[in-house]
Amino acid sequence: MPTSDAVQEAIPVPEPELTPAEILTRAAAMKATLREAQDESERRGRCSEEIHRQFLRNGFYRITQPRLFGGYEFDLTTFWKVVMNVAAGDPGVGWYLALASHHALVLGSALGERAQREIFGPEGDFRSGHRPAPMGKAVPVDGGYVVNGTWDYCSGTPYATHIMVNAMVDGKSLIFTVPMGEHAVVLDDWGDGSLLGMQSSGSNSVKVTDAFVPGHWIADWGAMREPGATPGTELHGNPMYLGMIRSVYHAGLVAAITGAARACLDELEEILTTKKTHLPPQVPRYTHPDQQRTFGYASALAASAEGLVCRVGDLYTEYCERWARTGQPFSTEDDVVLYQMLQQAGQLAVRSVEESWALASSSAAKRGQRIQRYYRDASMYKSHISAQYLNTAGEFAKLHFGIPATIP
Prior knowledge:
Strand order of the largest sheet: 5-6-2-1-3-4-7
Distance between the termini: 30 Å
Order of helices and strands: HHHHHHHHEEEEEEEHHHHHH
Structural class: alpha+beta
Oligomer: single chain
């Protein structure tokens, strides 16, 4: 395994003895609070300040952040389990948490020590969305670039310290990390019914105006997804920072939808155990074979989705450690296979939600009903560009057979 060349003092983590087991317990314990706040979070377009502060206290934002800069540096499986637990309380808030947090892994992989130390800051306080579509302009100036533009769908930004945005420079898509504040502001264009679902995900647009970004803060988006050592593997001595992020990026979305499937089952169980069948002989719904069959099938789909997400996390760790141990690359094909596995997990989770929705009856379709919200959230995932598994499958085949391919 590469060894760290860092010579400066590490930023202390808030809780040096915090374990993955404890952080998972904290995530599970938030479910009731998140569910009680769902209506207001959806209207607001994001979770409340209090929920955000609880995420801070629980250490959720620091799970994939390097230990050197105040993070816990836990594995991805732990992170995605936390997101699934939070999403079982509110899928949109789970989506927000995933995308506000996992970009610490990108920063920890792509940039050198000087940039990481400056961006993570003296207390390691870092949260950032990332909009990879090159929607703005970057003009070279002495020492870096001046960035301007508006990027939509910047999930994870309402309580962000930074925003990561892409712009084209000399034919390359580059990632520019911009501090939130005077030169980067979140626009009020999310929540309160502006879209079908995921209303609490904080996926607002961000406007960047005349922001200077130092050259050493900039990463090449294309190089981020190529096999081999990164500044992060050298700096942190942890192969987790290889920067193979196709699967990482999609996992944040799938973990949220898998949480939605689990939340939907909880609501369905409440319906089945408190209501009777409509037609005589009227019996408790949970005792009817047809209802049992659908509930069991939806449960199997949700459990399968959860299992796939966790398996991808374990394989990601295995491929990173294999590279460190043997030099065998964590290849683009490896990463795309994991991405495809996650797409299938997402489809399983959506099917679970759809089965629960169909069995719940029309009363669950009313505005304000939780199952209705979960169904809308699942529909948003299903239409997401990165969830289009047949497109990815075709491009993967090209990649596998050595034909030029365009992988999302």
